[in-house]
Design brief:
5-stranded mixed sheet
Amino acid sequence: MTIENIIAQVAVIQATISGVVQAFDNPPSSLNAFPCFVNFMGPAEVNYTPSRRETKHTIMMQLYLSKQVTPEAERLLRPFVDRVLDAFGQKLQLNATCAYSMITGYDPGVLTYGGHQYVGISFSLLAVEHESITFVA
């Protein structure tokens, strides 16, 4: 599979999470419906053995809850932590697009997108892909 397929399935899983209105596999020009996820490629690590390439992709899953940076928005954000962890805990292979995946951390707070501030959470997802290869001398 490719990183494009992996991120597409990440958005499919996000769209099933209770309360999420929209999930983007490609960043939109603006955000209009909340809560929503926007996904970005992060750093990757690639390792080789004689017959396999292992790619460890990092996907930054940004959950934008509200343009209103208030204590109330922060309170509404909290239930999404468990919802997201549970949804991805049940789909470790991201609908068969990778060998395994795991959320490695999250950071709640104020996120910026398109020059605007939002209350949200940035989740870091590790997706590990194995691909058979043949070395040619």
